Amino acid sequence: MASPSTAILSAAGLVGGYATARQTGNRQLGGAVLAAAGTAAFAVWKRNAGTARAVALTAAYVGAFGGSHPLAKKIGAWESVGVVTAGMSGLALLLGGSDTSRAVQGAKRAAKKAEKQALKAAAAAARV
Asked: Model's pTM, two decimal places?
């Protein structure tokens, strides 16, 4: 089974955690959403990128959550959540392992297939 996108998991945790806390008025429930998504992302990061990178990405995730609070005082709550979510999602894509490696592997397979087709076409043209 394919791994879920950790960029999406981390975004769901940050945005979903804030939205849950705001809509329900229950900060603990928002924290539970944040923690659940972070735990799921950690498991995928650990499997795809190793323990050290998973710990670093989880620290960045928690840091993004913490950093959104002082930033919210400067630019607004939702804007702050958007900024830290974009940053964390980008970091997850760059360092999380599966998201980027799947894209690279897919591109390599497509290039190899195109190369084989080009060689077959060239061989067919040479016979004519």
From this structure: 0.73
Q: How far is CA 100 from CA 2, 66, 107, 124, in A?
A: 13, 26, 11, 36
Q: At what angle do helices 98-127 and 6-24 cross, to 10 degrees?
A: 140
**22-35 pLDDT, tens digit each:** 999 999 999 999 99
For the chain, the straight-line distance linking the first and the last C-alpha, in angstroms and rounded, comes to: 46
In which residue are the tokens 């840091």 written?
63
67-72 long-range contacts (CB < 8 A, ≥24 apart) are 68/14, 68/18
Q: For the chain, give the secondary structure using H, E and C.
A: CCCCCHHHHHHHHHHHHHHHHHHHCCHHHHHHHHHHHHHHHHHHHHHHHCHHHHHHHHHHHHHHHHHHHHHHHHHCHHHHHHHHHHHHHHHHHHHCCHHHHHHHHHHHHHHHHHHHHHHHHHHHHHHC
Which residue carries 């980027």 as its tokens? 100
Residues contacting 67, CB < 8 A, separation 6+: 84
